[in-house]
């Protein structure tokens, strides 16, 4: 019988791709989502791509009673925790909401997992915990100096999970520091569909190319980078999802807390991404330089060597594939 895996935030951008890859790998995913920044309309697509029923529970990860009901109703063997708030700029304006959802949700989840005797957890962390790194590429043992409220909430949860694993040796935890998830499912059936204006570069480019937004604001043209624009490690969302499956397999034989970068291992500037997207869509992107955003950093990209060694995982899809898949998703409507 396939292991049943609870995916919190399983209807969201990353979570939905994780659900499909888990099912493809032989697991039985269960979605928990409050649909604050997603929609139940994704669920039939998940089932079509997974080729199996995907149970879904509408609940908030902070709701311990609802979580207890899920563990009562389903034979949960492990959890992938993707639920949370994730916009750097918004986090600076809404710190209470970010600590409440990101930290409070993780604590409620761990408490109910402990009650249920489930001690295997894959946690969606973020490369924003590093802040501006001293050296590139960034290894997992680099200093943690997050510049944003969002990054600080991720660092707090990471510390909590490491403390939990030290105090209870039955816990098996993978802390996955995502770099910049981008792109869409190669089928064109899943992609990023945030409510309101997207916060991330590639979905913004999709909306501009489709005529839904006028131009791209490039936040800072004077960063200390080759072309003055910010450099990030863009990771195809399917590669990222496959990393979660690799982490789940690794935890089957590894106790304790394990921190791993999930990134492509190279950086691309905003201007490079724009050029790649223009090639993918065959259109010119209108753009203008705007002031830097608080909480942003000049450049970061991953040293993914630990994930390659421990998880036997590497990103296989490049920037051109990311842009082509994102544009396919947009051409299919770009929403659910």
What does this structure look like?
The chain contains eleven helices and 14 strands. With 336 residues, the protein is of the alpha/beta class. It has a domain at 4-181 and 235-264 and 303-315: NAD(P)-binding Rossmann-like Domain (Rossmann fold, 3-Layer(aba) Sandwich). It has a seven-stranded parallel sheet, with helices on both faces. A three-stranded mixed sheet has the order 12-9-14.
Topology:
Blueprint: E1 4-8, H1 13-24, E2 28-33, H2 42-50, E3 56-58, H3 64-73, E4 76-81, H4 88-93, H5 95-116, E5 120-126, H6 149-167, E6 172-178, E7 180-182, H7 201-209, E8 216-219, E9 231-232, E10 234-236, H8 237-251, E11 256-262, E12 268-269, H9 270-281, E13 287-290, E14 299-300, H10 305-311, H11 319-331
Parallel strand pairs: 1-2, 1-4, 2-3, 4-5, 5-6, 6-11, 7-10, 8-13, 9-14
Antiparallel strand pairs: 9-12
Helix pairs in contact: 1-2, 1-8, 3-5, 5-6, 7-9, 7-11, 9-11
